[in-house]
Amino acid sequence: MNPHPHEGTREVLVVFDDQAASTLVLEWSSLLAHVTQRDLAVVYVESTIALRAAALPITQVLAHAGASWAPFGPDDLERGYRVQAERLRARAEQVARRHAVRCTLRTARGAPAQAALTLAGEAALVLLGV
User: Fold this and answer.
1) How many helices and strands (H and E) does the chain possess?
2) Contact (Cβ atoms closer than 8 angstroms) between residue 118 and residue 15
3) Integer Cα distance of 22 and 45 in angstroms
4) Which of 7, 38, 53, 99 has the highest CB neighbour count under 10 A?
């Protein structure tokens, strides 16, 4: 038996575009990583389409019910992405600890399916949490 089961092995990769959808997929992927003695790599994908939409001068947001419309831009979306990524990181670390696997989180830009295809060569198994 290899005393370092993670060395030379590829990861179980899970790709998300919304941390809200992450709980069940994180549980499954973390358990798979544990059973296969692999690390868990979580990728949070920030939508380039949403960033382009937020850059349009007509983009607005209704902050609260009954409130008026307010401007919404790429900076607002970037702040939201950072908050989502940190929530996903905390959830992933919690689940990974429970299943005794090493876990990393990184961000990417684009679309989840494209990110999964691009990163698939690094992974033993790829899951999409979209």
Assistant:
1) 4, 6
2) no
3) 12
4) 38
Distance CA 124, CA 6 (A): 12
| Helix H or strand E encompassing 94 | helix 74-99
d(CA 44, CA 117): 14
Say how many C-beta atoms besides its own lie within 10 A of residue 7's C-beta: 7
Q: Of 126, 84, 91, 128, which is closest to residue 107 (Cα–Cα)?
A: 84
Inform me whether the pLDDT recorded for 1 exceeds 80: no
Minimal CA–CA distance to 43: which of 65, 66, 26? 26
Instruction: Give the percent of the chain with pLDDT over 90.
Output: 55
Please provide residue 102's backbone torsions phi and psi, each rounded to the nearest 5 degrees: -80, 145
pTM: 0.81
How crowded is the C-beta side of 106, counted as CA atoms within 13 Å?
A: 8
Provide the token pair at 97. Answer: 């600890």
- Please name the residue that has the structure tokens 């979306």: 77
Q: Which amino acid is at 39?
A: D
